[in-house]
Write a structure and sequence with these properties.
The complex is a heterodimer. Chain A is an alpha/beta fold. Chain A has 5 helices and 8 strands; from the N terminus they run αββββαβαβαββα. Chain B has 3 helices and 12 strands. The radius of gyration of chain B is 20 Å and the shape is globular.
């Protein structure tokens, strides 16, 4: 019994240590959540289309529920979530869901990765200018991936810095 | 009885051993990612041939070895004595090396240099990446 008690104390200590580590590693939670100052009208922007190079404005998809995803070829977590976006675009297209990628990258690198991942939704591209767009959508730290969910009424409802889970997106689609 | 105690103890330890941040992410939500300055703390110690670039990378974060560079006055590249990193097999990037934890890198800093510029890029493990960045670091005693 004494051994078991000792083990319990050890487990408690390890758990407390992990909790402290979690707290030290960043504090409050970060998930898909409303923007810091609440939902806001989606900022207008125009960037070149990844395939054609022709300028495209975000307003092109007004009236749809837009998943605006900022990514880059040098961002491994970005590339991990894109295959799920491809599946979800197929599954939810008929329900007015439109994924739009913004590659913070050179067109060559972004095109290579988009082809490799068989991306089936429009992608825009830019370097500093694309990062400025991400900032306008609430990405103050400039991290990637970063995703903004824009409602059919044109308001940025939810944002997330980091990999999006399929369940998080499907919960939004179901609303 | 004694045997079941032993099994219980081993089970508890097995559960506790990997208790890092992840279980708390599930309970309390993923922690907010650190600012790049906190995730990748760095300073320059000393001057001359034996100066060192000291990195302190927060747990759960990493820096790409091949993105780490230093420049002196006028943007002149300073050769970094980069130690081997941890090899990582990335589906997209192939074999790359990353740094985690504390690290000391030799860097010759010409006498009289007041600041050096460090270029770096890193990520939070399986979560997000920071864009390539530059940071100015004051040189000790300059």
């Amino acid at each position: 019994v004494r051994v078991l008690l000792g083990a319990l104390v050890l487990v408690a200590a390890l758990t407390a240590g992990a909790a402290v580590q979690w707290w030290l590693s960043g504090g409050a939670g970060e998930g898909l959540a409303p923007p810091e100052d609440g939902p806001f009208p989606r900022p207008a922007f125009t960037l070149p289309d990844l395939d054609s190079g022709a300028p495209r404005a975000i307003g092109e998809w007004d009236g749809k529920r837009v998943v605006l995803n900022f990514w880059a070829s040098w961002c491994a977590p970005c590339l991990e979530e894109i295959p799920a976006f491809v599946r979800l675009q197929d599954r939810y297209r008929a329900q007015g869901v439109q994924f739009v990628g913004v590659a913070v990258d050179t067109p060559e690198n972004a095109r290579r990765l988009a082809a490799k991942l068989s991306v089936n939704y429009p992608n825009l591209v830019g370097e500093l200018e694309a990062m400025a767009v991400a900032e306008a959508y609430g990405n103050g730290r400039g991290v990637l991936p970063y995703t903004a969910l824009i409602g059919a009424d044109g308001r940025v409802e939810l944002v997330k810095a980091g990999v999006l889970e399929t369940a998080e997106l499907e919960a939004w689609f179901a609303r | 009885m004694r045997e079941s105690l032993r099994v219980a103890l081993l089970t508890l330890l097995a559960c506790a051993a990997p208790a890092r941040a992840a279980p708390f992410d599930a309970l309390l939500g993923q922690p907010k990612a650190l600012a790049a300055e906190q995730a990748f703390a760095m300073r320059v110690a000393g001057q001359g041939r034996h100066a060192r670039l000291e990195l302190d990378i927060a747990p759960g974060y990493y820096l790409y070895k091949d993105k780490l560079r230093a420049n002196g006055a006028g943007g002149v590249p300073l050769p970094l004595d980069l130690p081997a990193g941890v090899p990582v097999r990335d589906e997209t990037f192939g074999a790359v090396e990353v740094y985690r934890g504390a690290l000391v890198i030799g860097v010759p800093v010409p006498r009289g240099t007041r600041v050096i510029e460090v270029e770096y890029q890193g990520c939070a493990e399986r979560r997000l990446c920071y864009p390539p960045a530059r940071r100015l670091l004051p040189v000790d005693g300059a």
